[in-house]
Amino acid sequence: MSGLAILALGITAIVASRSLEASYLHGRLSAPPLYDDISYFLDAVRWTNAAKDQSIFVSLWDLLRQHAPFSSLVAIIGLGLFPGSFIGPYLVHAVVVLAFLLGIVWLIWRRPVLEIAAGLIAASCAPVLWHTVTEARPDLPSGLAIGLAASIKPTAFPAALALLGSAYAIRLLVDCIQAGGLRLSMRTAFDALLWFVLPLIAIVAVLIGPALVETVAYILNVFVGQRDLWTTGESFWAGLLRFSIGGEGQFGLHYWFAIGLILMLLRLVLAAIHGQGALLDAVVLLAAVLISYAIPSAAEIKTYYFGAMFYGLFVVAMVLNGCACLALGEALLDRFGDRHPPSSSHGWPGACAGVSRPAVRQARRHRPDQHGDTGEPAAAAGHKPCDRATLVALRDMKPEKPGPLYVAFSSPYPVTSATIQLYAERARMNLIVRNELYHRTAQATGDALLQSEILVLSSSIPHTLVGPRVGDELIARMDAEKGLCLLESQKFPDVTLRVYRRGC
User: Which residue has better confidence, 177 or 143?
Assistant: First the structure.
């Protein structure tokens, strides 16, 4: 066990170092934070600033009331370990990868050591593990945790609960079939309930309880109130393709999706030959994978991160099916003739030759989604001077009346409002950001923008981000608006940025 733990630690070190290297060259760390990650960094800085004047109990309560306490805590630890840098929150996520690999060891610890080692190497090949380090947000850690039957992200808990509850019900049904009745299988079901389900509910109650109202309000706001802004209009079948052989599936699993399918089918065939008990065990795992596949595909909001539940469970299932195929193969050899030592366990590491190459290639690419991510190469090329110019323009501004300076943004691109807010928070600037992104018309957006003193506008660009593409209309209106003066104007290959001040 100690040797396997050291192996898991070594694999984690490779994944962390290589993925962060790729991020420095092409990804998030090559530019100021611009994505959903920034919201957790901002929560961490605010919590840290407030904690200096609060008791431990109040600080802990405030932490549990965050949108995602896990990611806020990771950001707090990371920024504390690496002050003045944003590498910390990403590096701390290596602990999640290590925990995932150790969880796999725990699941298959009865197998020969070479098989376990091969399973660890195979699991680390999946790009989703590398993305867990390069994306400081709760979706991917939650997906890996769900793969090991747990839940981290509060707003993903309803879907996780549906998945886990379905798997529990299916397992109970299979136990009933094998035991010959519900009564005989109740002890197994009760043990699972006592040792897993109840502790899970207790832990989630602690994590979600303080922010239950905010969590439910967030879910309703995104999935109901702003449904028309976020939905892609894709059907369930399009979602199935998206998360398997489509862009998201290729990004998270690459060719391991095909390998996992082959292992799943091979296990079903071997299990059918072996007998009913083995076949039912294979069907239970297959059902759990299919449920985790169907949930994000059925959701009207489809992003790479929503598929994390499926990717994490698929990786775990791939390892479990691989070990099961070896065990069933050995059993069949014992049954039908002389058994020779199987060589398949030695072939798994060979299948992972060149582990880092495809994974790093995937980590270097970033798919735009509908939650504010716009593509890392563009960020590296243009956002540094863009953010700097905006911040310099704001630094010496004084509000007309005593109090905070109100700054309104018409778009999350090319300047992310939360990035400006983060820098202002770290510099202790009295600044309040207003995101006027959710209005349905140019008129309503313009009226809302004029309620602030500083206006940050972007021209119209084709994008998958929230909000209508009315930037050109807004700029034309503000150029003609009396009482506004232009503070800053920058042109980039894909967008024009303008900063105005009201009340010149």
Answer: 143
Residue scoring higher pLDDT (339 or 437) = 437
- Residue environment code for 465-477, b if the CB has 16+ CB neighbours within 10 A, otherwise e: bbbbebbebbbeb
Q: Pick from 131, 125, 144: which is nearest to 349 by CA?
A: 125
Checking DSSP bridges between strand 454-458 and strand 496-502, what pairing results, if any? antiparallel
pLDDT at 268 over 70: yes
Q: Would you call 310 exposed, middle or buried from its count of C-beta atoms within 10 A (0-12, 13-18, 19+)?
A: buried
pLDDT for 44 beyond 60: yes
Q: Is 337 left (phi over 0), alpha (psi -120 to 50) or beta?
A: left
Report the alpha-carbon distance of residue 193 to residue 196 in Å, rounded: 6
Sign of the CA dihedral with 404 first, then 373, 225, and 46 last: negative
| The pLDDT value given to residue 28 | 83
Mean pLDDT of all residues in 77-92? 89
pTM of structure = 0.63
Residue-by-residue DSSP string for 336-352: HSPPPPPSHHHHHHHHT
d(CA 90, CA 33): 11
Distances (CA, A) of 298 to 231, 247, 286, 394: 12, 17, 18, 44
Query: What is the DSSP pairing of strand 496-502 with strand 431-435?
Result: unpaired
* Helix (H) and strand (E) counts in the chain: 25, 5
Among 15-19, 252-256, 287-291, 434-438, which range has the highest average pLDDT? 15-19
pLDDT at residue number 241: 83
Cα–Cα distance between 372 and 379 in angstroms, integer?
12
Helix (H, G, I), strand (E, B) or coil at 455: strand
CB within 8 A of 385, min separation 6: which ones? Answer: 490
The three-class DSSP label of residue 166 is: helix
